[in-house]
Amino acid sequence: xxxxxxxxxxxxLILGFSLSAVVQAVVSKFEMSRLLGDDSPKTLSIATAxxxxxxxxxxxxxxxxxxxxxxxxxxxxxxxxxxxxTNLVAELGIIMIILMGWQFAAAEFVGAPVMVVIxxxxxxxxxxxxxxxxxxTQADKGVRGSMEGxxxxxxxxxxxxxxxxxxxxxxxxxxSHYFVMDWVAIWKDIAGGLLxxxxxxxxxxxxxxxxxFLSSHPLLAKFWGPLVGPLVAIASFVCxxxxxxxxxxxxxxxxxxxxxxAFIFADLIVLPVLDIYRxxxxxxxxxxxxxxxxxxxxxxxLVIEFLFGAAGWVPxxxxxxxxxxxxxxxxxxxxxxxxLVLAALLLSRFFRTGERQMLRHMK
Length: 363
Prior knowledge:
The chain is mainly alpha-helical. It has 19 helices and no strands.
């Protein structure tokens, strides 16, 4: 079951990581702190755009958010960047379309800005300067979390038109290194998510999910799904794009539309990431992030639930195509073969241009 899901999304993963690598190769990480010095609407819009242009790895996003916070970015802008980097990236949308349908991808990309707005309102209402100062003191201790090397490396090419930068020798090298670096950062989450989704699809009866998600009470389920979706994500330990296959299983099992979106939003509050917040910013800020992020995720998912419901965009069928009966010569296989060639070319470039140094830096 897990391998069948992997085969279904393989080409989409390669395409998504390739697009992400191209963007990272032309966007400088070390310019971010200069652009994110306050929490004005303009700055927060830039933070959202920069997040969407970064890697989808949750651990790398958390590490990079601390890095730009230490370099002078506002704490609010750093958190907005973090949210956008795992919810507005190309690879997430592509995989959601393949496994679940365009409605879920659209909901993710509409709901993420709503979630950001709710989070900013909560931060302005409850985040004090003393809390930020205490978080800054803890951040400056430099306690290591995960994917620090990913956050620190900047292989972007500067100067000249974007197309020229992409196809220059430095650009092609940077793209190949970012491509491999993202795979190294995320493969455990992808494998874990696929194995967990496969196990739940095979072992857990649909009747259990229907009862747990209150499928027999449609109106109540619309509120219950967004409330429990993030809690299921926290318990699953799976984050980044690895949680999409599990989201497909939950949708087939009976969770509400908004519950699916809340579950996918919650990759930044899974237990390993919460422990990193504790190391980075201290216990007090960790709890503050957990409560405010959870509230924003639930609020954003509820807005999407009723907005898409009113527009008639909530799918009526619960039949996400998460597996095929057998691997056959169809469009999925052809696309996988094509994109495996692309992956081979990027890997070849990577191994010819100092791969050991990069992997050593990532530890």
